[in-house]
UniProtKB/TrEMBL annotation:
Regions that span the bilayer: 16-35, 55-78, 99-131, 151-174, 181-200, 206-226
Organism field: Streptosporangium longisporum
Renumbered residue ranges of the record's region Disordered: 315-339
Superkingdom of source: Bacteria
Name of the molecule in the record: Uncharacterized protein
The keyword Transmembrane helix appears for this protein: yes
Signal peptide from the UniProt entry: none
Keywords: Membrane, Transmembrane, Transmembrane helix
Compositional bias ranges of the Basic and acidic residues kind: 316-339
Amino-acid biosynthesis recorded as keyword: no
Length: 339
């Protein structure tokens, strides 16, 4: 009877899921090129011919690193919470138990390195809540350890977070950046409230509803991020045409000994002869322009730990060529925008 029960509980017909793993990135890559070409077939063929797939795959990989902690930590948290609250098994509980603990720890480390500063308090809240629920599940008889992990550790971590983040919190409220202020203020205080069970009646709707909503909206979020990710360097080309000086701002598709191919922001393709070329400058990506100036000792809330520790490149966004205007004749600007 036990063997029959195990066979009946074994998952079936899950091979189709493995086929979706390589298909989803390929679909995103094709849609990204289709979006960049402004739905023009000839421009799409030009991009496919010249663009390296490595640049497209890097955008998918970076987005996956950002989403991975949400899937692993959130799935393990919701499954454990449902089991502790009801004592019943479900597909969410099975998925949480099949996820190794070292994988969860590794994804938390990845999140600390790749998430923006304003999202790190939320990651800390999820990690502390998961630690408390895990102690309740695996060590139910250790009351002292449960009190320390479920209540003492979140309170201490919350106090230290408020002390460390206080300058950024004050700056966020001063600049009326409500979203950043809430992201820095609420999660440290809520960590101690998420380490216990919830009522049995709403437990399934709460945990499974959040899991299903995350599974549905995560691919959409990844698709939006990848569709907007840069796949070509953004440059400004200044050249002479018919006795006048013109500037084309767009993405560099290809360059050779005779001409440079530039894909404009409006989707038009320009071929500039090198003998008419006067200068080229690398422009900053519009997506890199910060939306808020809130920072913690020079670490802006829209920066991750990796970008904060990495050396910053010197680039002047006020270069007139990046704005579509020719540079003055006497002005010398080196490539990259450094004067």
């Amino acid at each position: 009877m036990k063997n029959e029960a195990r066979v009946g509980d074994a998952p079936r017909n899950q091979e189709w899921f493995l086929t979706l793993l390589p298909v989803f990135p390929i679909v995103l890559l094709v849609m990204r090129l289709w979006y960049a070409s402004r739905q023009d077939t000839q421009t799409l063929l030009l991009l496919v011919q010249t663009i390296s797939p490595l640049g497209l795959l890097s955008a998918v990989l970076l987005t996956t690193l950002w989403v991975l902690p949400v899937a692993c930590v959130g799935g393990r948290l919701l499954g454990t919470l449902y089991w502790i609250s009801t004592g019943r098994s479900s597909w969410l509980v099975h998925a949480a138990r099949r996820l190794p603990g070292w994988v969860v720890v590794l994804t938390v480390v990845v999140g600390v390195c790749t998430w923006q500063l304003r999202f790190l308090p939320t990651l800390m809240m999820l990690a502390l809540a998961l630690a408390g629920l895990t102690v309740r599940d695996r060590l139910p008889g250790h009351d002292g350890l449960r009190t320390a992990v479920c209540y003492g550790l979140p309170v201490i971590a919350g106090v230290l977070s408020y002390v460390l983040l206080w300058p950024a919190i004050v700056a966020a409220f001063a600049q009326r950046d409500v979203a950043t202020a809430l992201l820095l203020t609420l999660p440290p205080g809520l960590a101690a409230l998420l380490t216990g069970p919830v009522p049995v009646a709403p437990a399934r709707v709460l945990t499974h509803g959040i899991a299903i909503a995350t599974a549905v909206f995560t691919p959409l979020l990844v698709g939006v991020v990848v569709m907007r990710a840069p796949i070509l360097p953004l440059i400004a080309v200044q050249f002479d045409e018919g006795g006048t000086t013109e500037v084309v701002v767009g993405h560099l598709v290809a360059t050779d000994d005779q001409m440079s191919t530039v894909l404009g922001r409006d989707g038009a393709v320009s071929f500039v002869r090198n003998d008419r070329l006067r200068s080229k400058v690398l422009c900053p990506d519009p997506g890199e322009v910060p939306r808020t100036w809130v920072n913690l000792h020079g670490w802006y809330v829209e920066q991750s730990m990796i970008s904060w520790l990495a050396p910053a490149s010197v680039r002047t966004p006020d270069d007139p060529r990046c704005q579509g205007r020719p540079a003055p004749d006497g002005e010398r600007i080196r490539p990259g925008g450094a004067r």
